[in-house]
Design goal:
Blueprint lengths: L10 H6 L1 H6 L11 H19 L1 H26 L9 H12 L6 H17 L4 H7 L2 H28 L2
Helix pairs in contact: 3-4, 3-5, 4-5, 4-8, 5-6, 5-8, 6-8, 7-8
């Protein structure tokens, strides 16, 4: 299987392997087109209620997701025999969670901005994100490029916020 045309597992496979169910974002990563976008959207929809309910719970979910992510993504990648299979979207979950947690304002406009900016950085991978994506292997590498895309996104969102507040 090549990274450009990898096999997409059946939902029944996800049901048999919990790490694969998490890695493929509860099935959101199964879409043949735009699995990263679907995973990011589901990650946002699942996380916002937690964030609005309790910031402490949101931090716990993020930290657990970060630590478990290397294992989940690495094991899913090994199972699929493709490094960073496009359908593995746990890293997108964690990336959007990180951004949502540190937004300057919690409202639908900033959630939408977080989604769009993150997708842009995750798709286009400016330096050093692309280098990390290509050079760092395993589950840690799969997670790291999305954490970097999230950090770029946070920077841009805060600049937008500061520009609008100060104008």
């Amino acid at each position: 299987m090549s990274k450009n045309n990898p096999r997409i597992p059946a939902f029944s496979e996800l049901m048999k392997h919990p790490f694969l169910m998490l890695g493929f974002g509860f099935g959101s990563g199964l879409l043949p087109k735009g699995p990263g976008t679907a995973g990011t959207a589901l990650g946002l929809v699942l996380y916002v209620p937690i964030l609005l309910w309790s910031e402490v719970a949101a931090w716990i979910v993020l930290i657990a997701g970060l630590f478990a992510g290397s294992y989940i993504c690495g094991k899913s990648s090994e199972y699929m025999q493709v490094h960073d299979h496009g359908g593995i979207v746990w890293d997108e979950f964690v990336g959007i969670w990180l951004i949502l947690l540190v937004l300057p304002v919690q409202n639908w406009q900033y959630w939408l901005l977080a989604f769009v900016v993150f997708r842009v950085f995750d798709i286009f991978k400016p330096w050093p994100i692309k280098t990390v994506d290509e050079k760092v292997s395993g589950g840690f590498g799969i997670m790291l490029d999305d954490v970097l895309a999230a950090m770029y996104s946070i920077f841009v969102i805060w600049i937008v916020y500061l520009m609008t507040v100060n104008s």
